[in-house]
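Team,

Forwarding the record for the chain on the shared tracking sheet. I've put the sequence and predicted structure together so nobody has to dig through attachments.
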Amino acid sequence: MQPFPHTLTSQQLLSTYLVAKDVIIQLGYDHELRWQSNLRPEAATESDFLREFAWVTLCCGMNERVVRAKFPFVSHAFYDWRSASRIVKRQETCQRLALIHFRHPGRIGSIIHVAAVLCSIGFARFKRVSLVANARASRAELM
């Protein structure tokens, strides 16, 4: 029995990505894609990743202005994203302080969970695997 019955194949995942990309372009957000394509993922740090993950997690389904107003306080609660290790070691404190400003335990918990995953596998390995997956998706997109 498969541990995740809804796991997508690589081809299904790529197809889903391409559909999502087309929708983004059709909705007029192609400037976001251009901005993203100019980023250098290989230069990203653990701190960059934690901050971006937190931003996206908090913004999902929320008014961006609300998140923008609260994000400095949440960042402070998570030691300004200095390291996943620090967040994991002090996760109760991070969670307690973050929930004062952003009262969504699930989202705050997911930030802590991702920090724990980064601690477990290491950011260098995470980044290496992510870059390989991104390169494969880019090559497949060109086909």
